[in-house]
Design a protein that fits this description.
Number of helices: 8
CATH class of the largest domain: Alpha Beta
Strand content: 25-35%
Order of helices and strands: HEEEHEHEEHEEEEHEEEHHH
Bound molecules: fe (ii) ion
Strand order of the largest sheet: 7-8-9-6-10-13-12-11
Largest sheet: 8 strands, mixed
Shape: globular
Radius of gyration: 24 Å
CATH superfamily of the largest domain: 2,3-Dihydroxybiphenyl 1,2-Dioxygenase, domain 1
Length: about 290
């Protein structure tokens, strides 16, 4: 007997379908591409219109609803602007009943990267003069620069050579940071520095060492810079700042392991590699393959 697709499809309108999965926002940009950028071999788009729609499993739910069925959708969102937009968009779909769990222990974005450099003045000039970053703060050890309202998007730490100091992920709020830090601790990754509040940037921090030896920071409440009024502070200002290294006078100093990992020292070299190799040497070898 032939499968009667038309008949089955018409029956779908009387069904209730449970849909569980990952949600995402699909951001579509429509426009004309008529030329190539003079600076780089990249096509330049003249944006005509932009459309943001529910994606991932949310798109499956929309398709089920479009076929006339009632859809119960279950998913997880972060406590952030995209999460709120997804919630609003799903609520406006008449045949979808959304049951969304808000998980504030998830990071919402990569918020800054700190690089070690032996040529910190050259690096800072390059980022400001050529890449278009703005100067936020200077301390004896570090230069902080930004490309958005966050106090720092990139910072340079004085070091012996080019290597990764750490990457920081933004948590929705203090409670979310503590929940995320708790999950790390329960899984054997101790807090190597923190919980504390930094001087430059005023952000709350916790630092961990990843399995491969890089350093991860969970952070929140980073200072938002008003471009019209912001004045960077100097090395002298931060040298006398009373809240060092933690405004709460609680976090103390980083563990010795963290200092070494931030300095680019190898904790977990690839199998067969020399354990004394520095981070940048492993990266150079990998890139050279
Ligand atoms: Fe950081």
């Amino acid at each position: 007997m032939m499968f009667d697709f038309e008949h089955r499809l018409s029956e779908l309108a009387s069904q209730t379908v449970l849909c569980i999965g990952d949600l995402m926002l699909d951001d579509f940009v429509y426009g004309e591409v008529a030329r190539i950028s003079p600076e780089a071999p990249a096509p330049v788009i003249a944006v005509g219109r932009q459309e943001v729609v529910i994606g991932g499993a949310g798109n499956v739910a929309r398709n089920i609803a479009a076929l006339g069925a009632r859809c119960l959708f279950v998913g997880v969102v972060g406590e952030d602007e995209p999460g709120r937009r997804l919630m609003t968009a799903l609520l406006s779909e008449p045949r979808i009943e959304a049951y969304l769990v808000t998980d504030r222990s998830r990071p919402t974005k990569l918020t800054h990267v700190v690089l070690n450099s032996a040529r910190i003045d050259d690096q800072t000039s390059f980022f400001q003069d050529l890449l278009g970053f703005r100067h936020s703060d200077s301390t004896e050890m570090m230069e902080f620069i930004r490309c958005c309202a966050d106090h720092h998007s990139v910072a340079f730490a004085r070091g012996s050579g080019p290597s990764l100091n750490h990457m920081a992920y933004e948590m929705p709020n203090f409670d979310g940071l503590m929940r995320g830090a708790g999950r790390m601790k329960q899984n054997g990754f101790n807090i190597e520095w923190g919980v504390g509040r930094h001087g430059p940037g005023n952000n709350i921090f916790t630092y961990f060492i990843e399995p491969n030896g890089f350093v991860t920071e969970y952070t929140t409440e980073v200072e938002q810079v008003d471009e019209a009024t912001y004045v960077p502070n100097t090395v002298e200002y931060w040298a006398k700042f009373p809240g060092r290294p933690c405004r709460w006078n609680m976090a103390g100093h980083p563990s010795n392991r963290l200092r070494a990992a931030m300095g680019g020292e190898i904790f977990a070299p690839p199998a067969g590699e020399d354990e004394n190799l520095r981070c940048e040497e492993v990266m150079a070898r990998t890139l050279g393959r």
